[in-house]
Design goal:
Elements (H helix, E strand, L loop, with lengths): L24 H12 L4 E3 L4 E6 L4 E2 L9 E7 L19 E5 H7 L6 E4 L1 E3 L8 E3 L2 H4 L3 E4 L3 E6 L6 H13 L7 E4 L2 E4 L1 H4 L3 E3 L3 H39 L46 E3 H4 E3 L13 E5 L4 E2 L4 E2 L3 E4 L7 E4 L3 E4 L4 H4 L2 E3 L7 E4 L3 E6 L6 H8 L2 H7 L3 E2 L6 E2 L2 H4 L2 E3 L3 H40 L5
Parallel strand pairs: 4-9, 16-23
Antiparallel strand pairs: 1-13, 2-10, 3-5, 4-5, 6-8, 6-10, 7-12, 11-12, 14-27, 15-24, 16-19, 17-18, 20-23, 21-22, 21-24, 25-26
Helix pairs in contact: 4-6, 6-12
Length: 481
């Protein structure tokens, strides 16, 4: 535990709760500042015309006789984001059937605010909020799960968008942490206490100003993040351009596309249909193709014999590999004697997640800065050790992160549903273009430059939002005219 997590509280200030979140100095100080603000204040409960807990509904299997039910989309807290209203992910939408009597109370409308009141993990406390705007409602979100509470602000008393940003501010600085309980490992927001939170009420004009400030900052952040994403998406194009060809398109996954003939001579060691369905070709008209197994060791052994049993090495769990940037974001250390059963690797090796969905998401990175030049980690990594005289590890990482390659690799999944993996045999016969080493290094440097630009845009996007949040806090507290 770091020193910043340790603090003292006078016994006279203990109010019946003994958990440290309740007495976090920064949180207590902000509550004090809110109470001392010159703006008029009301309790949250006094600003609402309606509130309602959601319902998870029943399995979606409607028939004509189910007249008392309606089939609808159920919004879950997994769609909540910390710095945006909602993340509308069509692939994760969940349809359920809900009684009409419940749905009439739960129906969401513009300017409603949703509060995540249950289900948080230790790393993700509950209390996130989402604001329902016209563009969100256009996606036909009609209901929300029982882990969510809907509140409808009284527009005669408070601007709904202002209240949304106010509640989000309280969550981001830890106010909701002190209003949580935990039952059977599930975090719950104590709504009775939450509804007593003091809401500062500057003039309507100031509320609209705050809402516009945050809306503009979020729009700038979204635009900058889109620019960063476009740069990262162009990495694949860079590779194919250097190879002297255009980026291929993967065939559409339609029924007609999945009915096909294949010559017996073209069948390799897999007889299942998916592995023989889509053509896959990384060949370059400019550079020769070489089997990966000829220029890199696939899942090689790692020598720890020169280390004492008490010797520590790096430990890299799957969670510490960033799928966006292709980097190890954090590594830990463990005794190398604990490495049995884990995947072992050494400095400069390429780590590639083989299990779904980590593989599709692009969890892969180069092991760098390892303690004693060695490490071990998740059993779900494939490891590639390059022949540095022929192959640059950064170039190989870029090839293995190709969306085209990852899409094709899904056709070679084996294992049970939910735990499917790409076997090492996929790479034994994989051939990749092999430019001269100097060209590989040039390609790697160009990709690194794109990543650096994208990271700078990401940092700029966050700075824009952070500055707006700071101004918002000062306006709410009456500290900024």
């Amino acid at each position: 535990m770091s020193e910043t997590q340790m603090f003292r509280v006078p016994l006279s200030q203990v109010e019946g709760r003994l958990d440290p979140h309740f007495y976090q100095p920064s949180t207590v100080m902000l509550l004090k500042r809110l109470q001392e603000s010159a703006h008029p204040k009301k309790k949250l409960s006094e600003l609402l015309v309606h509130r309602c807990t959601g319902d998870w509904g029943e399995d979606e299997d409607l028939v004509d006789s189910d007249e008392q039910y309606q089939r609808c989309l159920v919004l879950r807290s997994t769609e909540f984001e910390n710095d945006a209203n909602l993340r509308l992910n069509g692939e994760r939408r969940k349809y359920r059937k809900i009684l009409n009597t419940k749905l009439n109370r739960m129906r969401v409308e513009e300017n409603d605010i949703l509060i995540e009141k249950s289900g948080g993990s230790p790393d993700q406390p509950v209390g996130r909020v989402a604001y329902l705007t016209t563009d969100v409602l256009a996606h036909d979100w009609l209901a929300y799960s029982n882990f969510i509470e809907k509140i409808k602000p009284d527009k005669n008393l408070v601007e709904p968008e202002y209240l949304f940003h106010y509640l989000r501010m309280l969550h981001s600085i830890g106010i909701t942490n002190r209003l949580q309980s935990q039952t059977n490992g599930i975090r719950n927001l104590m709504m009775a206490d939450y509804l007593k939170l003091p809401i500062c009420l500057p003039s309507t004009g100031e509320q609209l100003k705050i809402a516009a400030l945050m809306r503009d900052a979020q729009a700038q952040k979204t635009r900058l993040e889109a620019e960063a994403k476009a740069l990262l998406d162009s990495v694949d194009t860079v590779l194919f351009r250097h190879w002297g060809r255009s980026s291929p398109n993967f065939p559409a996954d339609s029924l007609t596309q999945r009915i096909f003939k294949v010559s017996i001579n073209a069948i390799d060691n897999r007889l299942d249909a998916p592995a023989n369905w889509a053509p896959f070709d990384l060949r370059s008209p400019v550079y020769p193709s070489v089997r990966l197994s000829q220029i890199a060791a696939i899942n090689p052994s790692t020598d720890f014999s020169d280390l004492p049993e008490s010797g520590a090495v790096s430990f890299v769990p799957m969670d510490c590999v960033d799928e966006v940037w292709g980097e190890v974001t954090e590594d830990h250390s463990r005794l190398y004697s604990e490495s049995k059963g884990y995947t072992e690797f050494q400095e400069g090796d390429v780590l590639w997640a083989k299990i779904t969905p980590c593989m599709q998401n692009g969890k892969s990175a180069i092991a760098q800065g390892l303690l004693h030049q060695r490490g071990f980690g998740s059993t779900e990594f494939h490891v590639f050790r390059v022949d540095a005289s022929q192959l640059d590890a950064r170039y190989l990482l870029a090839v293995l992160r190709l969306r085209y390659l990852r899409k094709y690799a899904t056709l070679f999944f084996g294992g049970s549903a939910g735990h499917q993996r790409v076997d090492a045999s996929f790479f034994q016969k994989l051939a990749i273009p092999l430019p001269p080493l100097a060209v590989q290094q040039k390609i790697a440097a160009e990709i690194e430059h794109l990543k650096t630009q994208a990271q700078a845009l990401g940092q700029q996007a966050q700075a824009v939002l952070d500055q707006a949040k700071q101004q918002t806090e000062q306006l709410i507290l009456g500290e900024l005219a």
